[in-house]
Write a structure and sequence with these properties.
- The protein has 9 helices and 11 strands.
- 37% of the residues lie in helices and 16% in strands.
- 42% of the residues are buried.
- Helix 7 runs parallel beside helix 9 (279-299).
- It has 2 domains: 5-223, Spore Coat Polysaccharide Biosynthesis Protein SpsA, Chain A; 227-304.
- The chain has helices spanning 18-26, 48-58, 72-82, 101-111, 169-174, 193-202, 227-244, 251-267, 279-299, and strands spanning 5-11, 35-41, 62-66, 87-90, 95-97, 118-120, 123-127, 149-150, 165-168, 208-210, 216-220.
- Helix 2 links the parallel strand 2 (35-41) and strand 3.
- The radius of gyration is 20 Å and the shape is globular.
- The longest helix is centred in the last third of the chain and has 21 residues, at 279-299.
- The protein starts with a strand and ends in a 6-residue tail after the last helix.
């Protein structure tokens, strides 16, 4: 075997979805001698270990390690440190990679000029249940457009979503990997470990290559179809961004945030005239925006830093 690419799957109590994830990697078009799949079991209490071992028994390029320190950032860092490849890609344990996912990632690293330090692509949802009428795929699709190319500012700074991102291993080593103050911890919702890492890298090496054909399908559970859940996710995102940017709460930030929220509320009736989506869809979008702003204010409070 000549391992060039390492795929890291950080797993925590996903026994129902993990087999779909691992099977999608077992069926990749890339020569199996060129890549490995490393499952990082982050203290799972279900059948995660047994499922992982069933794949290692069938495929000689699969292996599994146990990371005792709880948290997604700990698991991701364990993954790249254990990786044998020159390039390290991450796929969530509740996601499925397209058949040529590995092949396209490797090709991008090897052929694009200037050489990218990170590669990523689109993420589309697959649903636990049929979404309600107001729910749109737009809520869950992660895209940077229909054309391949380097990410451009201002969005470039925060890179790709964590379920579809790959790096040169030298970059992970140089920048010390993911900050362990961010990221999911068991079932506790914390966000931002991927965006925080991209932000640090961006200041020195902003070469993040995007190709929409590098496609992943990510599980969308029923709970995300609740408006309260969408608000909470937006709130946590805003909180994480504020912490990353080291914002501090002041009268001006409170006034600005309040003005933005009032403006969003005022705009809601005018959403009725928009062609894209019904009234409730537009309201939910505004609720998410308000959640993000409130999260930003919360994250800027030194007591919560």
């Amino acid at each position: 075997m000549n391992i060039i690419l390492s795929i890291i799957v950080c797993a925590y109590n996903r026994q129902d979805l993990l087999p779909l994830c691992l099977q999608s990697l077992a069926e990749q078009t890339l020569d199996r001698d060129l890549f490995e799949v490393l499952v990082v079991n982050n203290n799972s209490t279900d059948g995660t270990q047994e499922i992982s071992e069933s794949f290692t028994a069938r495929y000689d390029n699969f292996r599994v390690v146990v990371e005792k320190r709880q948290g997604l950032s700990h698991a991701r860092n364990r993954g790249w440190r254990e990786a044998l490849g020159d390039f390290v890609a991450y796929l969530d344990d509740d996601a499925r990679a397209s058949l040529d996912w590995c092949e396209r990632i490797l090709k991008a690293f090897q052929t694009v000029s200037p050489p990218p330090v990170a590669v990523g692509g689109e993420i589309h949802p697959f649903y636990e249940m049929v979404p309600p009428a107001w729910f749109t795929d737009e809520f869950e699709i992660r895209t940077w457009g229909t054309t391949a190319g380097f990410l451009e500012p201002p969005r470039a700074r925060y890179g790709f979503s964590g379920s579809n991102m790959a790096f040169r291993k030298t970059i992970l080593k140089e920048f010390g990997g993911f900050c362990e103050e961010y990221g999911m911890e068991g079932h506790t919702a914390r966000m931002g470990e991927d965006a925080e890492f991209f932000s640090r890298v961006y200041d020195k090496q902003p070469w993040f290559w995007y190709d929409p054909a590098i496609l992943v399908h990510h599980w969308a559970p029923a709970k995300i179809m609740k408006i309260s859940s969408r608000f909470c996710r937006a709130f946590r995102s805003g909180e994480a961004i504020a912490r990353m940017q080291k914002r501090r709460l002041s009268l001006s930030t409170v006034l600005t945030g309040s003005a933005e929220i009032i403006l969003l509320i005022v705009k809601i009736p005018f959403s009725l005239t928009k062609a894209s989506g019904g009234f409730k869809t537009q309201v939910v979008k505004k609720v998410q925006d308000i959640g993000f702003i409130l999260g930003s204010l919360y994250g800027a409070n030194p007591r919560h830093s």
